[in-house]
Specification:
Blueprint: H1 4-11, H2 16-19, H3 23-49, H4 57-75, H5 80-100, H6 114-123, H7 125-150, H8 159-214, E1 218-223, E2 228-231, H9 233-243, H10 259-273, E3 278-285, E4 295-306, E5 312-321, H11 323-378, H12 382-394, H13 399-405, H14 407-454, E6 461-464, H15 466-483, E7 487-492, E8 498-501, H16 502-522, E9 529-536, E10 542-549, H17 556-559, H18 577-587, E11 591-595, E12 603-610, E13 624-626
Parallel strand pairs: 7-9, 11-13
Antiparallel strand pairs: 1-2, 1-5, 3-4, 4-5, 6-8, 9-10, 10-12, 11-12
Helix pairs in contact: 3-4, 4-5, 5-6, 5-7, 6-7, 6-8, 7-8, 11-14, 11-15, 11-16, 11-18, 12-14, 13-14, 15-16, 16-18
Keywords: ATP-binding, Kinase, Membrane, Nucleotide-binding, Transferase, Transmembrane, Transmembrane helix, Two-component regulatory system
Transmembrane segments: 31-49, 55-73, 80-100, 120-142
Catalytic activity: ATP + protein L-histidine = ADP + protein N-phospho-L-histidine
Length: 627
């Protein structure tokens, strides 16, 4: 602050155009003015202290040049004109004083070294070389020639030595220009690099500030004393809503309206200042009634700001409003529970459909057997036996003579034997049909009983042999597979029973069998095959069930959406079975995946389940896989 009066004084001698120059250029202009203001009183003092002779004329002229330089600077539009005028005036004044002086050794004075340095500083290396070259030529060449021609014997120094001294002075001046140029170039290079660095930093700072300000996240930073360094607009607005006051940089970050919250945050800040990073969720709500009450859930991240050698210089806090996500997760959980319930009803409906198909097929068999029994009884040979009995009764008194002499009596034993054989055949047919009828009725009863077992609520874990459960699922589709000419290929490895929710697993198996049946029915392949494999996984703790068909296959663009709710490629499909099956597999801590090489190449659905059932501390995770 103490130098403001000096800069104001120097700026008073500069034109408006020069005052608008960059800081480095303005500094050189001020040096020019300062040099002139310093040299004018110094020169006048010199003239007052020494006798005025012809040798002092250049000094008087130089004082005038300093004053003229000040006038030029007041009107100039660039530094070049007043600086060149000053430097050339100094050269002319110095050369004239040397030529007019009775002491020619003045050409070797150290003050001459200032002219190249001053010229390079004010004009730059190129124009500085012009000024230095003029001075070097005058002192190194013209001055010795002038002394030899016009003032021989004025100095006691031999001519040869004097010439060498003048040449050395000229070389020294050029050397001063070289050193000044190197210094100026390095200084300008460093200054340009610094300016570029500062410009880059300012640009980066602007971009970062713009990025932070454009974010809806709450972002702010604190120093080690928990004073606010910076905060974006979203944070300032949130703080104003929460605390009812502005968040001012430099003040300590606090919660004046909610001291309980302050007690929670201070230990967290201390942990981060110790070098720890924290991330947590926090529910924030306004304690007092406000015009705009706040109730949000924030995902917070606090990180230390590290300086040299890993020293903590402060901390940054970023918070994201996840209230909508939390509400969506809650709604998703409710939807998932609803889907699970719906999936159970859908599974029950799917099983009921299979039961009805199978019962219908069995009833057809029962009806056929009943029709055969009716036909057999209607055309039975028992009436012939009655006729034979009536005939025997009519001739009971003369039975021997009737059998021996009467033609009808003679034929009667053969007739009875033939009738007995026919009745034996009828009995066998009736026995077979009654057996088939009984088996059909028992089959219907078993189907109904099995449906009642599977219709109960799920969630109970049972140790089940999976091949048996697959066979039961196949029985529900047996009629459909037989009618469509679908051949079932079983490849069951020797696997142990698994602990599983019977209802959920049967639901998945029925859906997969139904999906395979539709794929094979729609296929034009004559040899329709469904291959069912059961094996243990690589670790032995998982059971792998594969349903591989040679049906219509799946297009690659449909694989990614195959298990999505509502997605189906069937004309009359509802897009629910595979989605629910995948959810059920996930609920049992397994996974359901599908692979297909494309349309017309069939598809393979793979169900992987844990042998020992879900662990108590294991959380289900989404595991839909497509390949």
């Amino acid at each position: 602050m103490g130098y403001l009066w000096l800069t104001s004084l120097l700026d008073a001698f500069l034109s408006d155009a020069l005052l608008k120059a960059p800081p480095s250029e303005l500094h050189r202009q001020r040096v020019l003015i300062a040099a002139c203001l310093f040299a004018i009183p110094l020169g006048m003092s010199y003239l007052l202290l020494v006798p005025f002779t012809a040798a002092e004329v250049p000094t008087l002229l130089l004082i005038g040049c300093y004053a003229a330089t000040l006038l030029l600077a007041r009107r100039a539009r660039s530094l070049t004109l007043p600086a060149m005028f000053l430097c050339l005036s100094m050269v002319v004044s110095y050369v004239v004083s040397i030529f007019l002086s009775a002491h020619p050794e003045g050409g070797f004075h150290a003050s001459s070294m200032m002219i190249p340095a001053f010229a390079v500083y004010l004009l730059g290396p190129r124009l500085g070389l012009v000024v230095t070259g003029c001075l070097a030529v005058c002192l190194g060449i013209l001055h010795p020639l002038f002394r030899v021609r016009f003032t021989p014997g004025l100095t006691a120094i031999p001519l040869d030595e004097f010439t060498v001294m003048c040449a050395s002075a000229a070389i020294a001046l050029l050397g001063s220009w070289v050193l000044s140029t190197l210094h100026s170039t390095s200084r300008d290079t460093a200054h340009d690099a610094l300016e570029r660095t500062l410009a880059t930093l300012r640009e980066s700072e602007g971009k970062l500030s713009s990025l932070i300000e454009s974010s809806d996240d709450l972002v702010f930073s604190l120093d080690t004393q928990l004073r606010v360094i910076t905060a974006n607009t979203a944070m300032r607005r949130f703080y104003r809503r929460m605390q009812g006051q502005e968040l001012v940089p430099g003040q300590r970050f606090c919660f004046p309206r909610t001291p309980e919250l302050q007690a929670q945050w201070d230990p967290r800040f201390n942990r981060v200042l110790a070098g720890e990073r924290l991330r947590f969720e926090q529910e924030e709500h306004s304690e007092e009634p406000l015009e705009d009450p706040v109730h949000v859930v924030l995902d917070l991240s606090i990180s230390p700001i590290l300086g040299d050698e890993g020293r903590v210089m402060g901390l940054t806090v970023s918070a994201r409003d996840i209230t909508a996500r939390k509400l969506a997760e809650a709604r998703l959980g409710e939807m998932h529970r609803s889907l699970v319930d719906v999936s159970r009803y859908a599974g029950m409906a799917e099983i009921a459909t299979g039961v009805l198909h199978n019962v219908g097929n069995t009833l057809n068999s029962v009806n056929i057997s009943a029709g055969i029994l009716n036909d057999q009884l209607r055309h039975s040979r028992l009436s012939g036996l009655r006729k034979a009995a009536v005939l025997l009764e009519a001739h009971s008194e003369e039975l021997r003579a009737f059998l021996a002499t009467d033609a009808r009596g003679q034929r009667l034993p053969g007739y009875l034997l033939a009738l007995a054989e026919e009745l034996e055949k009828e009995r066998e047919v009736l026995r077979q049909e009654v057996g088939a009828l009984t088996e059909g009725v028992e089959h219907i009863k078993s189907i109904v009983v099995m449906q009642q077992q599977y219709a109960r609520a799920g969630g109970v874990l049972e140790r089940m042999p999976v091949p048996q459960l697959i066979e039961e699922a196949l029985r529900l589709h047996a009629g459909s597979f037989e009618r469509q000419g679908i051949h079932i290929v079983r490849e069951y490895a020797d696997v142990p029973p698994i602990l599983v929710d019977r209802h959920n697993l049967l639901q998945i198996l029925v859906n997969l069998l139904s999906n395979a049946r539709h794929a094979l029915v729609e296929s034009k392949t004559l040899d329709k095959r469904l291959r069912i494999r059961i094996r243990l996984g690589a670790g032995g703790d998982q059971l792998v069930i594969e349903f591989a068909d040679n049906g219509v296959g799946i297009a690659p663009e449909h694989l990614a959406r195959l298990f999505s709710q509502g997605f189906t490629t069937k004309k009359h499909g509802h897009g629910f079975g595979l989605h629910i099956s995948a959810l059920a597999a996930t609920e049992m801590h397994g996974r359901l995946s599908c692979s297909s090489t494309g349309l017309g190449h069939g598809a393979t659905f793979t169900l992987v389940l844990p042998v020992e059932g879900p662990r108590e501390n294991q959380r289900p995770s989404a595991s839909l896989e497509l390949s």
